[in-house]
Amino acid sequence: LKIIPAFRQRDTRLLVCATNSVRSLDQAFLRPGRFDYVIPIGPPDATARDAIWRSFVSRSSRADIDISALVEASEYFTPADMEFSSRSAAQASFEREMVSGDASGQVGASTEDYLSAISQTRRTVSDLDIKCFGEDIALFGRL
User: Is residue 132 situated within a structural domain?
Assistant: First the structure.
């Protein structure tokens, strides 16, 4: 804490800090003058989830994936949750193709593979986390 004012005296420096739990910080960090902005960033919204799913789906899937179904099924998923689901879907598809020897040309994970993987993935952000995040925005957010 003592070095923050000295660090801020130089115009060429930018101090960026991140935490998953702002309420766990020593309140001295949050006093005015220490950090100009406290910017809450929650789980990805539908637009962000769409973009994230598109990046994962393009790697190992069929062309006919229903991205909107994945977006709807993954509310409050973090990008890591989505990546885990994507890998699980690809693994399930791979295992099915190895067992069946499928040569139909329908290679890769399907929408159903993704939805099944999503339903089996425990999200890392709980309902309580979402509630606390909303409270933290009101208490600590400074934009």
Answer: no
Query: Radius of gyration of the chain from Cα atoms?
Result: 21
**Cα–Cα distance between 48 and 126 in angstroms, integer?**
19
Range of the domain at 109: 46-124
Least confident of 38-42, 80-84, 113-117: 38-42
Q: For the whole prediction, is pTM greater than 0.90?
A: no
> Quick check: 74 and 48 in contact, CB under 8 A?
no
User: What's the CA gap between 109 and 94, in Å, rounded?
Assistant: 8
Residue 50 CB neighbours (<10 A): 14
SS3 67: helix
